[in-house]
Amino acid sequence: MNHNPASKKAKLDELGEFDRLFPELVECLNDGCLKEKQLQKVLDWFKEVSEYNVPHGKKNRGLSVIVSLKCLKETISEEEEKIARILGWCVEWLQAFFLVADDVMDSSVTRRGKPCWYRREEVGIVAVNDAFYLESCVYHILRKYCKDKPYYISIVDLFHETTMQTVRGQCLDMITAPSGGKVDFTDFTEDRYNTIVKWKTGYYSFYLPVAIAMYMSGITDEDSHERAQHILLHMGRYFQIQDDFLDCYGDPVVIGKIGTDISENKCSWLVIQALKKSTPSQRRLLEENYADTNPKKVQRVKDLYRELELKDLYHEYEEESYKELIALIENHRGSLPESVFLTFAKKIYKRDR
What we know:
By secondary structure, the protein is mainly alpha-helical. The chain is built from 14 helices and 2 strands; from the N terminus they run ααααββαααααααααα.
């Protein structure tokens, strides 16, 4: 990890510049509605939707747009910097849309250290409409700030395509492991897992921010985007396996949520490794205790993970996979500098949240 004080200060300065834009963007979402007195309660409601759900994550995805742009262009105007940060916030709004909807589907309890939006007494099922709103914000902001830019259509198309990719991944995740306590490990395979991760997480978390910077830099050729995508989707798999590990072993205070993969019957990396290593009796134990909210059953699964030494297996995987990732970056022969990928990789290496 990078412990350089100057680097840390630069990161904090960039985060400060990024955060300063958020109130302006929330305000712009009211365009065209301020004269409608009957809509005032709606505007107040949606302001809280954005303020509660958008700005409290790590912001790595959003910040990666400006960081990637600085790697791709030697000189950037103040306007370009501002637009890159705004587009980074669009990524954060898109993620908020996914998370609000995902928490409803997964019956999650907490998100970023607070109750999930839908669990607030005054919200409930209204969260479905609020998720639609958060997605709509992306295109409202894009139109306001980028309509006259040469890359506008490419980036609008990119957001639409990324949303479709993520929705496909979410669907595959849900139908692979349906809720309701029924356990069927037939489809819990490495291939299925890799496909879910690629579509549900990889595209929007890793390729999207870099692709935005590429379009802003005038890099539009298919070959460059495919080469970048290859590395970034590999990184996305590495990231998701970390996420699965932290769901089981992370400190809820640090990661900001209570892990639910076991109780929610998720096709996670840990359960796939357990199925590969387990004896017939251990598999029966998994089948009897997985996908149940009973804390004792969840603990039995965790005890089996300990018995199968999955924590050690994960740490071995993390080191090997990171080495593979760095080798992939070093062997990259595309038009993008290594720094675009290395910046991302260093952020997620050995993360604890």
